[in-house]
Design goal:
Chain B: Belongs to the thiolase-like superfamily. Beta-ketoacyl-ACP synthases family. Chain B: It comes from Hymenobacter negativus. Chain B: InterPro entries: Beta-ketoacyl_synthase, Ketoacyl_synth_C, Ketoacyl_synth_N, PKS_Beta-ketoAc_synthase_dom, Thiolase-like. The complex is a heterodimer of chains A (337) and B (396). In chain A, helix 2 packs across helix 5 and helix 8 crosses helix 9. With 337 residues, chain A is an alpha/beta fold. The two termini of chain A are 13 Å apart. Chain A has 2 domains: 202 residues, Thiolase/Chalcone synthase (Peroxisomal Thiolase, Chain A, domain 1), CATH 3.40.47; 121 residues, 3-Layer(aba) Sandwich (Peroxisomal Thiolase, Chain A, domain 1). Chain B contains 13 helices and 14 strands. Chain B is globular. Chain B folds into 2 domains: 233 residues, Peroxisomal Thiolase, Chain A, domain 1 (3-Layer(aba) Sandwich); 150 residues, Thiolase/Chalcone synthase (Peroxisomal Thiolase, Chain A, domain 1, 3-Layer(aba) Sandwich), CATH 3.40.47. Chain B has a 10-stranded mixed beta sheet with strand order 5-4-6-7-1-8-14-13-9-10, with helices on both faces. In chain B, strands 2-3 form a two-stranded antiparallel sheet. Chain B has a two-stranded antiparallel sheet with strand order 11-12. The chains are: A alpha/beta (337), B alpha/beta (396).
Chain lengths: 337, 396
Amino acid sequence: MPAYVNSIHCISPYQAAGATHAGAFIAPDPVYTEVLSPSELRRTPRLVKMGLYAAARCLADAGLDSVDAIVVGSGLGSFDGFEKFENALLEQAEETLAPTSFIQSLDNAVAGQLALKLECYGYNMTYTHRGFSFETALLDGLLLLAETDGPTNVLVGGLDETTPTYAQLLQRGGHLKSPAEAGRVELSHSPGVQPGEGATFLVLSSVRQPSTLAAVRAVRTVFSPRTALEVEHALTALLHEQHLAPGDLDLVLLGNGGDNAQDQKLRTVEASLPGIPREYFKNYCGEYHTAAAFAVWLGVQRLSSSGAAPGACAPKTCLIINQYRDVNYSIILLTRD
Amino acid sequence: MNVYVTGIGMISALGPDVATALESLRQTRSGLGPIRHVATRLQGCYVAGEVSFSDNELATRANLPDADLTRTTLLGYLAAEEAWRGAGLGLGDTARTGFISASTVGGTGHAEHYYQAFRDQQPTPAFIDTYDNADSTEFISRRLGICDVVTTINTACASSANAIVLGMRLIRQGVLDRVVVGGTDALARFTLNGFNSLLLLDPVPCKPFDAGRKGINLGEGAAYLVLESEAVARQRGARLWARLSGYGVANDAFHQTGSSPTGRGLQLAMRQALDRAQLAPAAIGYLNAHGTGTANNDLTEGQAIRAVFGEAVPPFSSTKPFTGHALGAAGSIEAVLSVLALTHGLIWPNLNFEQPIPEHGLVPAQVLRAAPELAHVLSTSAAMGGSCCALLFSQP
């Protein structure tokens, strides 16, 4: 069953990212008033706003008023909601707490609010699994389209935000790169990553239409491989199933995070794909749980002639290989529709 | 392709394993009691379905006394290990095998232990590394040696029911042959205060579907099921507890925290499950309802039951007066209780019921009842954010 990407919208730090960039990659907020009423703007936390905005733009681009199913991935959900409610709980010694931030702390707030807004009574799912959050959402989208009684249009999203407190906790946990070492991920010789964020939504459909941008051919995850060989085997199996050889790939988007130890296996996998043009997408978006969603957006741009890298022909086949903390490895295959 | 339940494991307020829980149910002995293990001002204000062991006791039971694990992980590991071992599986059985877990609380209980110190700029352990829902999933996957499809669902109180659905779909589409599915959640100060702020907690044992119901008793625990394709299960001669014959997933799309007057989402989920199993409503011999004990849920859920079953409502009950509402683990705990009902031909009573809700007049099963001919059991879950899920278990 083909899975067409009929539209995709991404809020990301991409535009704001310079050649070198120290610290967190923060996505500039879009003009939310384009899709949210003033009252929605007031009572909606930022992560949900990002999700609602990206989803609304995505639906408009696909020419849809609603969808049949909603599947969202978010590694951390609304950490901001946790922080606010926990702070109130401590400051007020568990007395007379307002429930708003508790409700906002629920990880399925984005998918739930989208269902409300789109009046979508269909399948609704939220995955919260680190570097598999978006990947499982995409896999679920593919499963849904392949089911005999399945939907036609599935809204698939991946989003996470880096709040100041979360960045501080990452820093304390030793996960961040010192500003002096900031730089391109593929050249890194130091530990730590630069945190990022973003919200990406796409309409995955069993029906091709004039707006169709690309197709998602396959998604594969590998949990906690001991060696790069295990990732290479998964890659070989995926390409074999798709009747492709490594030489058929036109572009590889690699998810090196910039931590030299955690990137080791990915570097080995990369070396097994010589001569194929490549980009390191976390140079544009930073490291976060659902960075692969940004990579899908970038891949779809590259597959269209207008979004190809300067001076290059638009590729036809794009492979994304991602890793999160050397534990969550994933492979996504995109083709021009 | 048929999908079978070939293993079950559970730790809850009813006891540390399935056998103890079954005995508690047979004795009609509720697991609700005062809060003892969560440090909160609300201790003494509410009853809850706590697992009776401290974190250290859980770690000792799990043979992991030296690991720094959250309560959510310890509970999850104990239940998943029981299901895995009970299914006769080991390290050689991990090919084409997945682990789909669910949690809503994750390591929040661990994080809140250190949050004041963090606010005060004092050194703390890196609690952010265990805060998220995936922390327990990854620990358990590693211990069981599972690496094919590993993921975590959070759709609030329908989370682990939805994990069971994903597992079934992955087997049906041939992605996996075997999958461990379920969820784990520990009671935490954060969630107790959250539900308290929503004015949804009952200080005394809850009374689902009763006209005078006052709210929820929160609980904790974990439950996992091993699902296998028919071919793999039969080939290795696995014990077949039940056949997972249908499922339904829908969204109520009405309100962030309340359900629609007709229980539209639950109706959709129940009808989908019946359709997928190709069963008429009359085939259902027992309905394990969501039944939280809140004014809104039990009214709207009752209307959904009436809409699907009309006047011929099957024997039904909420088992939350036994276990408390274990949030992300509730769906899989109730799935295990549904499988046990099917296996032993028993219908669990809805404790504490006195008077029906006038709007729908539904009267749940009130005493333990033998039902030797029980063939199909439906289990439902509903959640904040609108998620609704129905699971249908049939005799193997």
